[in-house]
Amino acid sequence: MTDPLSRPPKKDPQVRTRVPTRPSHFRSRAALGIAAAAAEGRFMLQVCEDCGAVQYPPRDACASCLSVALPWRDVSPKGRLIAETTVRTSTSIYFRERTPWRIGTIKLEAGPSVMAHVHGDLAPDGEARVVSMLDKSGQGVLFAIPPDMTPNMEDDPQMREMTCDPKFRRVLITDARNENAPALAQALADAGASMIFVGEAESWRPYPHRAALAAIPNVDILPMDVTDTASVVELCGEIGGKTDILINNARFVRPGGILDRADVGFAREEMEVNYFGLLRLAQAFGPAMRGRGADGDNSAAAWVNILSVNAWSNSPDYGLFSASSAAALSLSQNLRADLWDGGVRVLNVFTGPTEDEWHQPLPPPKVAPAAIARALVAGLKDGLEDVYVGDVAKDLIDRWRAGPKILEREMMENRGASS
Amino acid sequence: MAENSKRQSYDGIVVVSPATVPYQRFSKEAAHWWIARALKQSLDAASLRPRDVDGLIVSSFTLFPDSAVGLTQHLGLTPRWLDDIPMGGACGVVGLRRAARAVQSGDASVVACVAGDTNHVDSFRRMLSSFSRFAQDASYPYGSGGPNACFALLTDHYMRRFGATREDFGRICVAQRQNALRNPHAVMKTPLTMEQYIGARAISDPIALFDCVMPVAGAECFLVMREEDAKAQGLPHAHIRATIERHNAFPEDAIQMRGGWEMDVDELYAMAGLRPDDMDLVQTYDDYPVIVMMQLEDLGFCAKGDGPEFVRAHDLTIDGDFPHNTSGGQLSAGQAGAGGGYLGLTEAMRQVTGAAGPTQVKDARHALASGFGMINFDRGLCSGAVILSGDGA
To answer: Does residue B47 sit within a domain?
Structure first.
């Protein structure tokens, strides 16, 4: 079993913050498929379309029949650890700072042998489950874990390098007024977050769930409005150096497409919150988080955006909100690239219509705050980049992948399904 | 397809003038400098001038951005046969094979085979991260232990599978160090005891410090020509009795426990008309002792899995009953990059021509030298072997 992580000590301000270093991020184009699978927590390898042979390492042609048709497929993660070593001397600065480091060779039931990081609880010669994960370079790697959960398994030091586990981390959630805020704060408290800062705009204006939010352990409600640069900068000055996970929970949504509205008023509000709000937060908190990517057990770990799945394909009934979501999605990709150097992950949680007043006339299924909170925390614990909450979001991304143009037609035909 | 075509013999083709430029731990010089010195040493020994060389075969990891082509202009050579053999530890055997066929077919008269590398501070680290595409994608991101970690996995598996102990590998390393003490050019100059071997600093379990070669700068060279030309020049020469090479053997093995030698070993001895027992000395490729153990098995000195028992039962030193890696091998003489693929060959040439000096094995007539190279991902892909005999044999 894994030794439980203990509460990180208070930071000594006289000691230099460790500069984030990264494991090698160089990959061939074919090998990027591992990262794509890891971003969603899937274990996928190339499988030859012609002869069915499972391939590893990723390649351009089948090693059994020379076919170049090698689509990525979910394959069985079962295998056995047939050799292992503990690396004590490494040529990489990143690993040099983290040795001893356990790796091994796993013979997969699906066919090939793979080299993988090995969890401390995996027995020598033992049965293993191989998962794809993203390492601190943001690239995909394979990780061999015990087939069944073990106590404190998530605290394995190698595993914690791959994940963004909230345990003992300090979290900032924006927009206390948003219906998601109490569920998010509760889920993070349950996951062991040591501080949960919640930004609150227009504190003088009451809202129904404030008392419930304030009652959650470790919650600290602080003034911040994502549409007000000064307030974002001010809060960042206060807690920017101890924000390990930032959850961008602010959202402005109104129904309607272009011709449903007479002016740009709401559209501007949507951009102000959903796009510029993210930009303001990123410009304030991003540099500090990027610099603290290797700051011990409570290093900066993740930036989370909660986005409408219609960022991928416009829903005409919410056409202008979809457009602001698409802008935010694009911005999140920029942020991912910018935070890459620091080993800080950007997790996008995509949701379909939510259970709230602005989606009230829509038919179910709709996503409740607790479901978003659950998926978000699970995504952090698994170190993901893309999480789809609820059936609508999962269905949409599935259709988008099958054909964005076909989906565009489907979205047009579905118009008015709410009335 | 029909069965393998029959190999032609190498009768009438010989190897001469082995050269070793004494190794240095680090060097400010470029690979070109080292290669030029080795080539000159071989040519001087053969009383030849650069323009007498009409074939050139080169192996080096640190020539970049040059390759063999750039070297022709750099060194002022005008060859009509040119090869670049990027096969690491197998480059010596493979280069010799190419050269011998070139001379045999009349495509070249004198082929110089040369390998060497420089070693700058930090050049080893830089090379590792971009060694191969599969290494970049599928091994280097896992701890970046380089070949130490890859061979640690092979060693760990071999120990579990065949019951080898660290002492078994230690026997190989300790004996080679004894041999190295008689080689004035070896970089390791102090004795190594089994206690020191076992107690050494762990590098990548179960591999410890003395299981690992030391990267150095250095170069090696030899010449391939017709026997009649060697005789006319009055050059001591060795005959090529048989050679094999094989790449990516046994891809179905879940982890490497044998090399390509196993596929071709019967043909090797049949072509030479010799048996393993006839070998007076053996030079295996020894960047890590586990691969020595596999070569002893795959080259027919013992059955698969009996390597540990074999090294317990034999004395691997120069004066022992199984003289092995008589120069100290790479483990004690140093690994001069691609030159490591030549080290056993040049030593074997000296041995069968009676020119090995302080490391000479008494009455050495037949020698086997093998090569192994390129951990492309999880295993070495290239393997080769050659049997050389002295003129009197």
So the answer is: yes
Same domain, A56 and A74: yes
Same domain, B226 and B207: no
Q: Are residues B189 and B295 in the same domain?
A: yes
Query: Same structural domain for residues B162 and B58?
Result: no
Residues 6+ apart with CB under 8 A from A114: A56, A79, A105, A106, A108, A130, A142, B138
pLDDT in tens, B146-199: 999 999 999 999 999 999 999 999 999 999 999 999 999 999 999 999 999 999
pLDDT score at B280: 98
Mean residue pLDDT across chain B:
96
Q: Residue A356 has what DSSP assignment?
A: S
User: Could you tell me which of A336, A370, A376 has the C-alpha nearest to residue A355?
Assistant: A370
B254 touches chain A (CB under 8 A): yes
Q: Which domain holds residue B94?
A: 13-122+217-233
Is A210 near chain B, with CB under 8 Å? no
Whether residue B128 lies inside any domain: the answer is: no
Residue A145 lies inside a defined structural domain of this protein: yes
Q: Does the structure show a pLDDT above 90 at A326?
A: yes
Residues A226 and A347 both lie in one domain: yes
Q: Are A84 and B156 inside 8 Å of each other by CB?
A: yes
Q: How far is CA B118 from CA B33, B65, B68, B218, in A?
A: 8, 14, 16, 6
One domain for residues B150 and B251: yes
Verify that B351 and B283 share a domain, yes or no. yes
Chain A residues whose CB is inside 8 A of the B157 CB are: 82-83, 105
Q: Is A21 on the interface with B (CB under 8 A)?
A: no
User: Is residue B206 in a domain?
Assistant: yes
Task: Please tell me the predicted confidence (pLDDT) of residue B127.
Answer: 74
Report CB contact under 8 Å: A105, B157: yes
Q: What is the pLDDT of residues B12-28, one digit of tens each?
A: 999 999 999 999 999 99
| Residue B189 sits in the same domain as residue B161 | yes
A97 at interface of B, judged by CB pairs closer than 8 A: no
Angstrom distance (rounded) from CA A104 to CA A7: 30
Flag whether B3 is in a domain. no
Structure tokens, A323: 């457009």
In this complex, the residue of A27, A57, A91 whose CB is nearest that of residue B377 is A57
- Mean pLDDT of the region B110-135: 87
- Percent of all residues in chain A with a pLDDT value above 70, rounded to a whole number: 99
Number of helical H runs and strand E runs in chain A: 12, 15
Does the distance separating the beta carbons of A115 and B144 come in below 8 Å? no
Q: How many CB pairs under 8 A join A and B?
A: 117
Domain boundary residue among A162, A190, A223? Answer: A162
Structural domain range at position A105: 32-162
Q: Is B30 found in the same domain as B168?
A: no
- The answer to whether the Cβ–Cβ distance between A103 and B377 falls below 8 Å is no
Q: From the candidates B122, B129, B136, B142, which should be mutated to test the interface with A, based on the most A CB atoms within 10 A?
A: B142
Same structural domain, A129 and A145: yes
Quick check: B128 pLDDT over 80? no
Q: Check CB contact of A359 with chain B, cutoff 8 Å.
A: no
Nearest CA to B30 among B76, B64, B79, B5? B64
Q: Is residue A67 domain-shared with residue A95, that is, in the same domain? A: yes
Mean pLDDT of chain A: 96
Q: Is the pLDDT of residue A419 over 50?
A: no
User: What are B153's two structure tokens?
Assistant: 């996995």
**B251 shares its domain with B330:** yes
Same domain, A276 and A307: yes
Q: Do B205 and A139 touch (CB under 8 A)?
A: no
Number of domains chain B contains: 2
Is the pLDDT assigned to residue B300 strictly greater than 60? Answer: yes
Torsion of CA B166, B168, B171, B174, to 10 degrees: -20
Q: Which of B30, B34, B8, B6 is nearest to B20 (CA)?
A: B34
| A105 to B140: CB separation less than 8 angstroms, yes or no | no
